[in-house]
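QA checklist item 7 of 12: single-chain prediction sanity check.
[x] sequence parsed
[x] length recorded as 279
[x] structure emitted
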Amino acid sequence: MAEPDTPDDELLTAYLDGELPSDERIRIDARLEHEPLLAARIDRLRRAGEGVGPALAMLAGSAPEARLRLMLAEQLTAMTATPAAPKKERRPSFGLADLARPWRPAVALASFVIVALVAGGIGYGLALRRTEAPAEQETWLQAVAEYWRFTTAETLALVPSPDLAARQLQLASSALGLPLTSGAITAGDPAFRGAQLYAFKGKPLVQIAYLDTDYGPIAFCIIRNGSPKDVEPDATEIEGFSVVHWQEDGFGRMLIGRAPVARLEALASRLRAEAGQGA
């Protein structure tokens, strides 16, 4: 079950960079052992950071700084090589007009260089934000797919006792505010392997695990997202998994696994029928 003090991305980034105090790092290490959603978030931040280097390399390769500096140097060389026009003898004087007149082209070009470099800095910031965007736009479907990567047949090898299964479903029902009965959820094939309660962005998320004889682990997930719009089941692929997802009565639902889409669609139809379209 997810702890209420979920670390933010800034804290997890400091963890990845080795900048946390030892006691804080030890606390997060301990939580990683039993919080797959937290592990998935850290893995996602680590993979997002790996894209920064190539982005900066691409930016550096296209930056006009070197060319602009060369243009400035050529302009200054041309100006110093131009013979000065004969001057009439007069009393030496020095004013702003005299200062600006000979250096006006250089000042304009230098200003162009500065503006271009500042623009390059802005582009650098935008490149960084683009690498961070996937984490900000992450959906609950993506979050489930990322931590489901760590689930194997061995993970679901143990069959929960009837008493444990009933208590797990009761806990999940209370968190969701949605009845989850064994008759509606444990279809028998694939075999029921327990229900666990998580949270995604403050919303309760229940995972009901199955072990399919032919295709391995399959998860049926339900989130209370409050969306008023019902959406019929739709199939997609996320992180190499087949996914069938739909929306009913303020709850999002999904089936995910390495089974063919047809297998998940058939299971979705059965779950909807057995639950009376309420779970």
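[x] summary fact logged: Residues 233 and 269 are 9 Å apart (CA to CA).
[ ] second reviewer sign-off
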